[in-house]
Amino acid sequence: MGKLIRGVSKNARFFVVDTTDIVQEAQNIHRCSPTAIDAFGRLLTAGVIIGSTLKGNDVLTLRTDTNGELNNMVVTADSDGGVKGYLSNPSADVPLKDNGRSDVGTLVGKGILKIIKDMGLKEPYVGLSEINSGEIAQDLAYYFYNSEQTPTVIALGVKLKDENTVEYAGGYMIQLLPDADDDFITALEQKIGAIRPMTELMAGGMDIKRIAKLLYEDMNDENAEKLVEDYEILEEREVKYNCNCSADKFYRGLITLGKDQLEDIFKNEKELEAECHFCGKRYKFVEDDFKDILGK
Question: In the chain, what is the greatest distance between 2 CA atoms, to the nearest angstrom?
């Protein structure tokens, strides 16, 4: 079970999340390469953060369509802290960078990021943005700045203990509120440039509350001896990898194939098997399950 805190200050709202258990569950399901789980884990973490801004039964989908070997990733999140996802080529991998870090940017490549928000209206909101870096965090920050006119700082990270074990995963997002003070913006830029990556902070023993404190403490700039920015934590919640698939949902999807196509399937097969992309669970159906449709 992961953890998320959401808070606000005079000049910004912030989110900090530990998604170690979530990314580990994703790795258990999808069996990704080291670089693929790094990329996928970052997108899952982003889904948790952005999903926490939803209300009621709203659903968020993040989808990457790129020219890298990973091709595409899909993450779906809800307002209750649930997130799930899948990727088209989990075994794809590339060599490490010269500094020993994962080359997520090369594996993801360039393309399009889709942000889809289903808010129960006739049509969902669909935002499109370019993926230029492939590093996920930078591309999401670019989206918020250009599509929603919201200056945003995002940090996402995944650290593996070995090929199958996620040691740390998490991230934070800070979004400036309208009319944020210039002094705060300057101080925030300096602070973000000075602190270590998210997974290194976690490895150093910091929990998400301590990381939130770090983001705000001792913020100095050239024009202020001491810039004090008090903040308030508005919410603490558990977050988790959660797939809500069911036999009934798959059944309702299969009946849309229609009578003729179902008859053709059962002429050659004794059973029809469907597998969930998100969790890998398999559901089996036999001809008798569709007797009302087939007229038998």
Answer: 82
Q: Could you identify the residue written with the tokens 């530990």?
A: 18
* Residue 289 DSSP one-character state: G
Please give the single-letter amino acid code of residue 187.
A
Confidence of residue 228 (pLDDT cuts 50, 70, 90): low
The residues, any chain, with a CB within 8 Å of residue 214's CB and separated by 6 or more, are 195, 201, 206
At residue 278, the 3 state secondary structure works out as: coil
H or E stretch including 134?
Answer: none
Length of the chain: 296
Q: Fill in the amino acid letter for 67.
A: N
Mean pLDDT of the region 196-200: 95
Query: Using CA atoms, how far apart are residues 83 and 141, in angstroms rounded to an integer?
Result: 20
Question: How far apart, in whole angstroms, are the C-alpha atoms of residue 283 and residue 289?
Answer: 12
pLDDT at position 150, please? 93
Q: Look at residue 296 in the predicted model and tell me its pLDDT.
A: 59
**8 Å CB contact between 87 and 68:** no
CA atoms 135, 141, 146, 147: torsion sign: positive
Q: Give the number of other Cβ atoms within 10 Å of residue 128's Cβ.
A: 11
Please indicate, yes or no, whether the overall pTM of this predicted structure exceeds 0.85: yes
Cα separation, 291 vs 275, whole angstroms:
22
Rounded to whole angstroms, the Cα distance separating 139 from 114 reads 11
Arithmetic mean of pLDDT, 67-78: 95
Beta-carbon contacts of residue 232 (< 8 Å; ≥ 6 apart): 7, 8, 9
